Structures are given as C-alpha cells and as structure tokens.
Amino acid sequence: MQASVTEDASAFAPRRSHKRSRKSDEIVQAVIDICRNKGFSHITIKDIAKQVGMTRSLFYHYFPDKETLAQAMVDKSVNQVLARMEEWNRVRTPGDVKGALETVVHVARSIIADNSPLRQQMIHSGNGGLYTRFVDQVSKAIADYFCQTAVQDFARHHQDQLPIDHVREMLIVLISGFITLLRVQPDTSDETFIHMAAQTLHLEPYL
C-alpha cells in the first residue's frame, strides 16, 4: 500500500510543477503589461496581485521579491530573441558571412521596433534600468549564440583562421552598439550597419 501511495504522489508532482510554471508566466506577462504605463520601480506587489487576481501572500509563493520577478521578465524577453536566432540558424547557409551580418542587424532592429515594454518603451515609461539590463543580457546571449554557430562555421570554412581576436567580446560591443544606434538614429540603413560590422570584424574580404 505504501508503494502505491508514493507512486500516486509522484505522478501528480509534474502536473503541479507545470501549473506553477504557467502561473509564473502569467505573473510575468501581467507585469510586462503594467510596465506599459508605469515604471517598474513604482509597481507594487499589490498592483501585480490585483492584475493577476491573487492575494499578495500567494504572489510570494511564486516570486520571493521584485528583483527575482524583474530577472524573470528580462529572461523571457531574451528567450524570445534567441528563439528568432534559432529559427535563423535552422535555415541559414553555412559560410554566408553577409547573411549572418544581416541577421544581427535585423534582430537588433526588431528589438527596438518591438512593442514589448522590455524594449524601447521601457525608457519612456521610467524603466531605464530594466531596459539596460535587457540590452546587456541580450547582447551577451546573441554573441554566445553566434560563437556557437556562425563563428564555428566560419572557422571551419577558413582553416580556423579568424580575422579578429576576442571574438565574443567584439560581438557584444557590436550588438549593444547596434541597439543603441538604432534607438537614437532609427533611419540608419541596413547596408550601413553591415559595412560597420564588416569593418569592425575585419570581414570585408568575405562579403
């Protein structure tokens, strides 16, 4: 009998975990919605609980504090960007340097144009700190993704001869710089960005 009880309890555990994950996602999305009109630093736990339809004490069951919630918001937005990168990686042509550079520009542009408050709107609604954290984290995530995919393909195609040192660091600087320039000068053409990237990474001969 005891074995049967243990099996039944374990069978229900994944279901509870899935339900908790869904509720956590719901809370994160609710805060993102609130951030459209109110800075994150001014949002209270009471605001969040009311939006989701729960008590404050139940909120703390999912997130111990606002800092943990802030990181969950950033993580969600970064994961959305990485999903776009994975889609690109599935259909890309290995060795296509120009195509890889175009992807960097398109992803950076979509980050700025996206209506999510974790993008451009974060600055205008008093969420500059959270926006900066997002840009920093997404720049590193995209750089890491490129290092694991396009950079390795480039090295294989060119006998492990990369044209620059400190590839990951250079990519982080490039991506975060693109995002900033697109924010302050959105009409900058894709071709301009591609040439800037090629010059920075010494890729002109491969275009």
From TrEMBL:
N-terminal signal peptide: none
Renumbered residue ranges of the record's region Disordered: 1-20
Known DNA-binding region: 44-63
Keyword DNA-binding set for record: yes
Keywords, sorted A to Z: DNA-binding
Domain HTH tetR-type: 21-81
Name of the featured protein: TetR/AcrR family transcriptional regulator
UniProt source species: Bifidobacterium kimbladii
Organism phylogeny: Bacteria, Bacillati, Actinomycetota, Actinomycetes, Bifidobacteriales
